[in-house]
Each structure stands twice: as C-alpha cells, then as structure tokens.
Amino acid sequence: MAATVLFTITGGEVVPEIEMPVSATVLELKKKIELVLNLKVERQTLRYDNEEINNDQSIAYYDFKKNVATLVLHFKLLSGKPKFNLLVKSNREEFNVKVKETTLVAEVKKKVEKHSYSIKYLDFYHLSTKMDDDDLPLSAYYVSEGSEIDVKHKFHPYY
C-alpha cells in the first residue's frame, strides 16, 4: 500500500483534490477540507461508495483502491439561514454584499451590478472555479461565512 491517498472531493461545483497520508484520520482529512473550502468540520459529512466514513477511522482502514478515491462531501447549511457578508473583489475595488448560503448566484450578480458594474462583461469565481450557473445557490460553490468571490472582466477581442 502506498503512503498516501489522493482524494477528489465532489458534491459541489468546486472539486478540490487533497492528498493525505494513510496514517491520517478522516477527521484530519476534514480539517484539511476546512482549510481548503472554509467549511467547518462539524458541518461536513463525507461519503465513500454511498457509506458515511467515520471521523475516528484512519484512511488506511477504508482500503481505497489504487490509492485514489472520490468522496462526496455534504455539508449542513447554517441553521436559520442567517445572512453574512460576502466579500466581492475586483481589480477596481472590494466591497461586501449581504447573502445567505441559499442565495442564488443570479441574485449576487444583481447586487454586484448595483455597485455600477455591468454584469454582462463580468465573470464570477470562487476558489478559482467559475460560477457559471446562475440558478445554483451559493452553497453549491461552497460559499459560506468568511468566503470571498473574485469578479473578473471577460476578455473581449477588439473589432
């Protein structure tokens, strides 16, 4: 058995890959996911082959084939669906918009447009993933309290 396992974390639009030693526990993997996705450990549930994996078990316990594994991440939405400030960054400025994890991407774009941006010339990114689907909630991109999105101008060739 190799000394590490490469995990692909699915379940949302952002799909990180995280390498962990087989001696690490699932809880340690969740702590690494927290660092990468800004999702608290207690809000995470990881599944492998439709089975929830246990925080106390070592990664070696699960005997992942070929030392690569795809895990599905589910995370609990904040109870009561509270609002929080989402930091929006562009090359011109930074500002906050009030959102919930259930706010649709299209609604965020409308809020950004109120800051004198024409959204038809902008792309939105979270964790280097383009937020293409306006009908998805922010939670699909793992946006939560403390998150930020980057707004970039679309490339338009000159005519």
UniProtKB/TrEMBL annotation:
One of its GO terms (molecular function) is ubiquitin binding. Coiled coil: none annotated. SUPFAM superfamilies: Ubiquitin-like (SSF54236). GO terms for biological process: proteasome-mediated ubiquitin-dependent protein catabolic process. Residues 3-67 form the Ubiquitin-like domain. Gene3D superfamilies: Phosphatidylinositol 3-kinase Catalytic Subunit, Chain A, domain 1. It comes from the Eukaryota. GO terms for cellular component: cytosol; nucleoplasm. Transmembrane segments: none annotated. This is Ubiquitin-like domain-containing protein. It comes from Acer saccharum.
